[in-house]
Amino acid sequence: MTDQAEVTRLLHSAQSGNPQALNEALRHMYAALHGIAKAQLHREQMERTLSATALVNEAYLKVFGGAEPPQWANRHHLLGVAARAMREVLIDSARRRKASKRPQEAGRLPLLEITAELSDHVDYAALAECLDLLAALDPRQANIVAMRFFMGMTAEQIAAALDISASTVQREWRLARAWLQRELER
Fold it and tell me: Which of 27, 75, 135, 144 is the most buried (most CB within 10 A)?
């Protein structure tokens, strides 16, 4: 059985009431989540206040800290939810740094363009505001941006996770990227 199929089976077992299954699924997923967190932090050239392990742990608390246990469709769904939680942790961290430093407008590094390659300098707070606006207009495009930008997923991986074609992902990515660029330049 592939790791994806095994994780999906464990997630379904956890939803059926097996508490051990969720722990086992997360054990299988930890290396992937840690790798995503490490890559994301590596791209962030600003002052680092989080380690990859801390980012994964903070995301875990966001996802599993609620009273109701989350419902998962499969491994890709779990990765998508984890990506969103990591995004929120990074944004919260960036906002805390900004609040403590209160940089002048000239000292900020705005995200002027989102390209297919992940940017080295990201204004997470500005990106978060724009992604929230985009999510209100088109939730799927906002999901695609989050999966591509925060997780570094390819169009094919996103297509599999969202159960759409890779060409649809690419088209939606181009539209979302243009919209975000326009919004961030305002």
Answer: 144
CA distance from start to end of the chain = 50
Q: Is the dihedral of CA 92, 132, 52, 61 positive or negative?
A: positive
The answer to whether 72 and 78 are in contact (CB under 8 A) is yes
CB 82 within 8 A of CB 146: no
How is 19-39 classified by DSSP, letter by letter? HHHHHHHHHHHHHHHHHHHHH
Q: In Å, what is the CA distance from 5 to each residue of 156, 175, 177?
A: 18, 32, 32
Residues 133 and 120: their CA atoms lie apart, in Å, by: 23
Contacts of 48 by beta carbon, 8 Å cutoff, 6+ apart: 41
> Which tokens belong to 48?
């680092």
Neighbours of 186 (CB within 10 A): 5
**The two three-digit tokens of residue 91, written as one number:** 């944004």
Residue 130 dihedral angles phi and psi, to the nearest 5°: -65, -40
Q: What is the pTM for the complete model shown? A: 0.53
* Residues contacting 118, CB < 8 A, separation 6+: 43, 149, 152
pLDDT digits (tens, 9 = 90+) for 51-73: 888 888 888 888 877 666 667 77
DSSP 8-state symbol, 105: G
pLDDT in tens, 12-50: 888 888 878 878 888 888 888 888 788 777 766 555 677
